[in-house]
């Protein structure tokens, strides 16, 4: 059993834990809850003798941790899964801990199998994922087969199968009569794992009771009642009857009624007496998360605010239109559109065999041309549009959303005989009267 009496810890002018008293009894999983900065990790460090309390005391089985004979055989803990030498393998890490505590080497292989790391036992821990590191930390806590176990966020980084395994492990250890003390921020998991709760806020004790007592003390149970949607007068008739009987009725957005102050059998009797048909009559009990949020809402140190973005928006240039909001932006499943088109050309999918198997390789947002063959025209230069091969600057590319679905077929005219270019012929300079296209790169002018 773990027992804290008047436990206080100060760091300079900051009080991390103040006058904290509680008991963690064997045979049950005790959850340790509290907001960030409430003093949970500091309390666990004082239990294990890593920090000295400013005042008060904490004992394990009636002794301070430092005075326990062969403490690693009696207390196992996981406070920081990263507290492992990265150059050591998982087996060597556990083997060194076993040798320091007089634990036989065969126990190392046993706990590696318990946590499922037997296949990576000889791999260096620096390559372990977060979940594998958590499993290695749990193996270290189980190494001495202790009667008292402390876990700080044991399911952090684990997959659903690993979370279920930890949950069953905690329950099995408690069923064997061990003392199991677990700190976690996952309320849904604590509701399924813990039998008893110790809740602190800003270093002070807020609650020390069972899970069911905690939920009942920090939430308001109510009954959900629904009448036929096609007969709204029945809802009004039932509301009047319930209010006259001493109930408190609140309408919900979907048309149902939330009733407090009356038990379900009484609500059913009143509806029968008022000749009101019911489509739904169900009890509602708050979850552990709702009860926890209600109790600790005044003990939260770090609160987020709405991002106002004040003074960060750039003024629009004269004549510019404000951006149109994208439909669905910010909602789950929304993805940003692709980046702007590359090379000033609209993105087109290859359709002809020459485009599919030609010298250009398809990229993410267009085609990335390979090095041009000798005498070939630059891919960025204006393309010939007439049969004689003369270059002409055509109209600007049509935007993709306005482009026709299919191009008209080209007239069947015999191609002009191609004349091979002279080798290494100097390019003919452009006539002075022809202005250069400002959109062309310099190497294509």
TrEMBL record:
Biased composition (Low complexity): 342-377
Transmembrane region(s): none
Translocase among keywords: no
Alphabetical UniProt keywords: ATP-binding, Nucleotide-binding, Transport
Comp. bias (Pro residues): 315-325, 406-432
Pfam families (UniProt xref): ABC_tran
GO molecular function: ATP binding; ATP hydrolysis activity
Residues covered by region (Disordered): 311-445
InterPro entries, sorted: AAA+_ATPase (IPR003593), ABC_transporter-like_ATP-bd (IPR003439), P-loop_NTPase (IPR027417)
Gene3D superfamilies per record: P-loop containing nucleotide triphosphate hydrolases (3.40.50.300)
Residue ranges constituting the ABC transporter domain according to the UniProt record: 2-227
Domain of life: Bacteria
Membership in a protein family: Belongs to the ABC transporter superfamily.
PANTHER family: ABC TRANSPORTER, ATP-BINDING PROTEIN (PTHR43335:SF4)
UniProt name for this protein: ABC transporter ATP-binding protein
């Amino acid at each position: 059993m773990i027992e804290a009496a008047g436990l206080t810890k100060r760091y300079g002018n900051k009080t991390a834990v103040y006058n904290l008293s509680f008991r963690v009894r064997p045979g049950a999983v005790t959850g340790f809850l509290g907001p960030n900065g409430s003093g949970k990790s500091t309390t666990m460090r004082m239990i294990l003798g890593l920090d000295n309390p400013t005042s008060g005391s904490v004992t394990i089985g009636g002794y301070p941790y430092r005075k326990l004979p062969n403490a690693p055989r009696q207390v196992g803990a996981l406070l920081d899964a990263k507290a492992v030498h990265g150059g050591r393998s998982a087996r060597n890490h556990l083997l060194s801990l076993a040798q320091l505590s007089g634990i036989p080497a065969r126990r190392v292989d046993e706990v590696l199998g318990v946590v499922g790391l037997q296949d990576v036992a000889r791999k260096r821990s620096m390559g372990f994922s977060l979940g594998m590191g958590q499993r290695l930390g749990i193996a270290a806590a189980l190494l001495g087969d202790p009667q008292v176990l402390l876990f700080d966020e044991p399911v952090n980084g684990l997959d659903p199968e690993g979370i279920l395994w930890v949950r069953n492990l905690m329950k099995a250890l408690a069923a064997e009569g061990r003392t199991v003390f677990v700190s976690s921020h996952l309320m849904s998991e604590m509701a399924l794992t813990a039998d008893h709760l110790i809740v602190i806020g800003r270093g002070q004790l807020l609650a020390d009771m069972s899970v069911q007592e905690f939920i009942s003390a920090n939430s308001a149970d109510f009954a959900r009642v629904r009448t036929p949607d096609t007969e709204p007068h029945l809802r009004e008739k039932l509301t009047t009857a319930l209010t006259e009987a001493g109930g408190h009725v609140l309408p919900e957005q979907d048309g149902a009624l939330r009733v407090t102050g009356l038990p379900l059998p009484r609500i059913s009797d009143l509806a029968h007496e008022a000749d009101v048909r019911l489509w739904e009559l169900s009890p509602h009990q708050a979850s552990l998360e709702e009860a926890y949020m209600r109790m600790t809402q005044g003990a939260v140190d770090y609160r987020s605010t709405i991002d106002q973005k004040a003074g960060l928006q750039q003024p629009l240039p004269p004549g510019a239109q404000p951006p149109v909001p994208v439909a669905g932006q910010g909602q789950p499943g929304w993805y940003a559109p692709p980046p702007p088109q590359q090379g000033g050309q609209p993105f087109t999918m290859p359709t002809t065999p020459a485009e599919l198997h030609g010298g250009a390789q398809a990229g993410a947002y267009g085609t990335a041309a390979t090095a041009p063959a000798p005498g070939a025209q630059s891919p960025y230069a204006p393309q010939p549009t007439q049969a004689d091969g003369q270059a002409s600057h055509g109209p600007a590319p049509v935007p993709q959303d306005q482009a026709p679905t299919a191009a008209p077929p080209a007239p069947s005219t015999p191609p002009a005989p191609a004349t091979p270019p002279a080798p290494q012929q100097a390019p003919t300079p452009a006539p002075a009267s022809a202005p250069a296209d400002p959109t062309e790169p310099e190497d294509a002018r």
